[in-house]
Design a protein that fits this description.
Largest sheet: none
Helix content: 55-70%
Keywords: Coiled coil, Membrane, Transmembrane, Transmembrane helix
């Protein structure tokens, strides 16, 4: 069940023998400079140097991918912020609608109270009634005394002396 640990062979260096080498795309032709040309590796050894142009191309592709990912992230973030704003606006409208229904119910109650209080007599009517009542009371008392109708009045209670 246990596999033997991969052993280093002089031909593969640190790469395990079962790993497939990654294909290297062909680099664009570059002018050959005899002084800058790297020495060719020995027969059977793994190539260790990659042309600088290929590395720069690969780095440029990685940077392009990163910038596209950043753009997508920025668009997603902007979209989410717009959705958040729309949700806030919808919640505000719903709260306002709830307040409006509460206000409508309150307006109906106030309108009912106003209608009931409008039917009540005003201050002027109450003062006029009090004045008329006082005048009529005085006139009737004078009439009762002049016509000797004291017998119609209730008898006075006899004062009791406490001993």
């Amino acid at each position: 069940m246990t596999d033997a640990a991969p052993t280093k062979t002089p031909e593969t260096g640190f790469i395990p023998p079962n790993a497939a080498p990654t294909p290297v795309p062909a680099a664009p032709p570059q002018p050959a400079a005899p002084a800058a040309a790297p020495a060719k590796p020995a027969q059977g050894a793994a190539p260790t140097l990659v042309p600088a142009g290929h590395l720069f191309d690969q780095l440029a592709r990685i940077e392009d991918k990163c910038s596209r990912i950043e753009d997508k992230y920025a668009r997603s973030e902007a979209l989410l912020s717009r959705v958040e704003d729309k949700m806030e606006n919808a919640a505000t409208r719903m709260n306002e609608a709830a307040r409006q229904s509460d206000l409508a119910a309150l307006r109906n109650e106030v309108r009912g109270l106003t209608d009931r209080t409008r039917r009540l007599p005003g201050t002027g009517a109450l003062v006029l009634t009090a004045i008329i009542t006082a005048v009529l009371t005085v006139v009737l008392m004078v009439a009762v005394q002049r016509l000797n109708l004291d017998s119609l009045l209730p008898p006075r209670a006899a004062p009791t002396t406490a001993q």
